[in-house]
Design a protein that fits this description.
The protein is of the alpha+beta class. About 15% of the residues lie in helices and about 20% in strands. A hairpin with a 2-residue loop joins strand 3 (about 90-95) and strand 4. The longest helix is centred in the middle third of the chain and has 12 residues, at about 105-115. The chain starts with 16 loop residues before the first strand and ends in a 48-residue tail after the last helix. It holds the Pfam family DJR-like_dom.
Length: about 230
């Protein structure tokens, strides 16, 4: 409350960031979407400041049911179904892997169940979390990359990446940091998933999991059972 006494203070305008623009990055024209296919979305521009934590994947398509007649009404889009489309997702910078996630659907679903609030879950319906099923089968979702990383011909997958435009003074400061060749520390938490496919019919069971020490030691553990 003491700041209200500073009647002689001058207004401060933060103009270090001139603007932020969201740009679209598409896949290669010959990309296929079958099992075991790799989908790459590349940003090849240099001298570019991006904001991956605010980026998102845009996915649209149509759900069609083939086979037994009369069963179409029983087929719906499941919770977080977009993440289950991918077996693994990786984020690389200059060919160096920064983060990755295996079994994206299971990993992100467990993490979101324990971290997403009820208010945010309503917002995330647009990302495929508890999605509304269109009677015509059409769907389109914007999935934030921070839900997947701590990043069929009728499908269209698009990466929307914010570009940060700096002021001239701060742009010069960033260029000097790059010219110095100094390593930049990136502190973040990564997700990892371990599965035990078949439990024994005993009252006790020990499950050994290999973990690292020091900086890479586990901070949180989420345990789940599925029948």
């Amino acid at each position: 409350m003491t700041e209200i006494l500073n009647i002689g203070g001058e207004p401060v305008f933060d103009d270090r960031i001139a603007k932020i623009e969201t740009h679209t990055y598409n896949l290669y024209a010959n990309t296929t979407f079958k099992y075991s296919d790799e989908i790459q979305i590349l940003i090849q521009q240099q001298d570019l400041y991006t904001l991956p934590c605010e980026s998102f994947l845009y996915v649209e398509g149509t759900l069609t049911v083939t086979g037994a007649a009369g069963q179409a009404d029983n087929v719906v889009l499941g919770n977080n179904f977009v993440a289950f489309m991918f077996d693994e997702i990786r984020y690389e910078l200059d060919g160096v892997e920064i983060d990755h996630c295996r079994n994206v659907g299971i990993t992100s679903t467990l993490k979101n169940y324990v971290t997403v609030s009820s208010d945010k879950s309503v917002i995330l319906r647009n990302a495929g979390w508890e999605p509304h099923n269109n009677p015509n089968g059409y769907f389109n979702f914007c999935v934030p990359l921070n839900l997947l990383l701590e990043f069929c011909e009728d499908y269209k997958r698009v990466w929307q990446m914010p570009h940060v435009v700096l002021s001239e003074f701060n742009k010069l400061s960033m260029l000097r940091a790059l010219e110095n060749g100094r390593y930049l520390s990136m502190g973040f938490r990564s997700w990892d998933l371990y599965e035990y496919p078949l439990l024994q019919n005993t009252t006790k069971h020990s499950w050994a999991i290999k973990i690292a020490t020091q900086l890479e030691k586990p901070r949180y553990v989420v345990f789940a059972l599925q029948t």
